[in-house]
Amino acid sequence: TEQPKSVYRDSMTCDGARIIFVGGLMHSGTTIMQHSLIAAAGYNISRPKLFPGQTRRMGTNAPEGWPPSNISSAFHDASCSTQWVIYKKPTRNTEELTRMLRLADWYPKIRLVFMMRDGPSQVWSRLDRLNKTHDAALQEGVHRWCEVNAVWKGRPTRSPDRPEWTVTLADFSQHSKQVLRRIMHVQDSHRRLLESAPFSRQQHSSLRQWQAHQPVYEYSESAVWNQMPAHAREFLRTAECDASLNVSFRSEVLLRASFVCK
Q: pTM here?
């Protein structure tokens, strides 16, 4: 169905400035961030709309997928939209994270949001969900966390008009409104997207009900440690990233200014 012309920018400004892409490892808060952005943009969160290139995850209403490539017929719709176009795809390995970073080659002003969670909590949350808690799986989880976060930390710096954010699940749970405002900040005539009204009581209730059914623990480091069996607790307490990666598995020291545009 053809959308109203007002939805699209002039072709000279088709830079993807209204596209937000949320990445990060699974169980780092990517889906919660996605749905919070969808609600803040004024879309229906009980059954979020599908943007070009998205499909619904099996058994859920949650949309997931990559923005269309520059050879896709939907590329113009996404890059020229004046309405928010919100994507989420967990970047499960370094190859997928590299793909996320390269989206800026197609969409120069795409807003990239990388969700992070402290290593032990993310690894245990994911593996417990998969019922794979043996030492080999724990080791693989630690290795994956270290490699993916090292690639994000070492990424080339983009110019200020090509924004990126690193957001920890812990910080987002405490400062969600501030984080959403910064990510969705715009400086042009479409300011109605900026000062989104506070959630209505019905919207807030729907969001909380949805969050309660997510397979991501409400952020509590002590609760996660208490849920681990002794062998997993000991393994994750002593795990370290390879020194050459320059990231700390149990620390969020690189994230303290986490929702400042970088």
A: 0.79
Contact between residue 129 and residue 38 where contact means Cβ atoms under 8 Å apart: no
Per-residue pLDDT tens over the stretch 118-139:
899 999 989 998 888 899 999 9
Q: Under the phi-then-psi rule, with left for phi > 0, alpha for psi from -120 to 50, and beta for the rest, what region is 198? A: beta
Cross-strand partners of 81: 8
236, 138 Cβ separation under 8 angstroms: yes
State the burial class of residue 251 (Cβ atoms within 10 Å of its Cβ: 0-12, 13-18, 19+). Answer: exposed
Q: What pLDDT digit, counting tens, does each position of 188-216 carry? A: 433 333 333 344 444 445 544 545 444 44
C-beta neighbour count of 16 within 10 angstroms: 24
Helices (H), 131-229: 135-153, 169-183, 201-212, 221-227
User: Tokens 């715009």 correspond to what residue?
Assistant: 186
DSSP string covering 28-42, please?
SSHHHHHHHHHHHTT
Q: Which of 157, 158, 173, 260 is nearest to 216 (CA)?
A: 173
Taking only the tens place, the pLDDT of each residue in 234-253 is 999 889 999 888 888 875 53
